[in-house]
């Protein structure tokens, strides 16, 4: 029987690429996000391969999350990909914008928790399921000016561990994925639309593409029932740590 996956932040980047990779595996999809036109376009494309539903909500809004997820007629979700999240601003912590901090803590941490809080009991009742949390190298290592973004991803790392421990009695798999430099809308959002700054992040080396991460996620969710890939760190070859990237001469 086909599996069913729910992906947050599915309208672009790693979320969208993961939806495409899952469709290639015959996994039915619930695509979640805020940008309905983008989700509609993706649905139109992927519906040729699998069943696709769309749910529009903002993960930061607890009521919206609960209302949208509880409206699902099919609650047998096999795979939850907690992908929604972003960086907002980058600079010294003493000058940080509290609005940016709210956006990152509310989206990357609380949003992931709100979505998971609804879906985990459904998985627990079925004694099966797989949760994939998209963290970051920033969650394993804090870099200069990354402060609150790094903190939000460090929280994701801790939540993945907490889920793995507490969901262990129910046979639910938890995979934490920590990418390094991936070229998506990520830097454009972080630098508030400043294309020059965003492009500079990926200059002088070949960054990962969203599809590279999606391929690994697709691999992780298609392992045999007794196997879980617990923690995956992914770098482009030019990257050696959160701060060391070989950009050539
Ligand atoms: C994205 C990777 O290195 O910009 O989470 O924090 S990094």
From TrEMBL:
Protein species of origin: Arcicella gelida
Xref: PANTHER family: ALCOHOL DEHYDROGENASE
Keywords: Oxidoreductase
Protein name: SDR family NAD(P)-dependent oxidoreductase
Family: Belongs to the short-chain dehydrogenases/reductases (SDR) family.
Pfam families, per the entry: adh_short
Record keyword Ubl conjugation present: no
Keyword RNA-binding included in the entry's annotation: no
Domain of life where this protein originates: Bacteria
Stored Gene3D superfamilies: NAD(P)-binding Rossmann-like Domain (3.40.50.720)
């Amino acid at each position: 029987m086909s599996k069913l996956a729910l992906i947050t932040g599915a309208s672009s980047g790693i979320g969208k690429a993961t939806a495409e990779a899952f469709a290639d595996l015959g996994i039915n999809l619930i695509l979640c996000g805020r940008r309905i036109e983008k989700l509609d376009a993706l649905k139109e494309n992927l519906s040729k391969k699998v069943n696709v539903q769309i749910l529009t909500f903002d993960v930061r809004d607890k009521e919206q999350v609960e209302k949208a997820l509880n409206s699902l007629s099919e609650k047998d979700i096999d795979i939850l990909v907690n992908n929604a999240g972003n960086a907002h601003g980058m600079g010294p912590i003493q000058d940080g914008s509290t609005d940016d901090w709210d956006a990152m803590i509310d989206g990357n941490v609380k949003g992931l928790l709100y979505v998971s809080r609804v879906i985990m009991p459904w998985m627990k009742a079925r004694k099966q399921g797989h949760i994939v949390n998209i963290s970051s190298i920033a969650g394993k290592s804090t870099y200069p000016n990354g402060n609150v973004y790094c903190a939000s991803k460090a929280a994701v790392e801790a939540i993945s561990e907490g889920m793995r421990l507490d969901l262990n009695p129910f046979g639910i798999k938890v995979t934490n994925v920590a990418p390094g430099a991936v070229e998506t809308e990520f830097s454009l959002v972080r630098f508030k639309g400043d294309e020059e700054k965003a492009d500079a992040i990926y200059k002088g080396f070949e960054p990962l593409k969203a599809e590279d991460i999606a391929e690994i996620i697709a691999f992780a969710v298609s392992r045999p029932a007794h196997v879980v890939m617990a923690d995956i760190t992914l770098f482009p070859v030019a990257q050696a740590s959160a701060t060391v990237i070989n950009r050539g001469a």
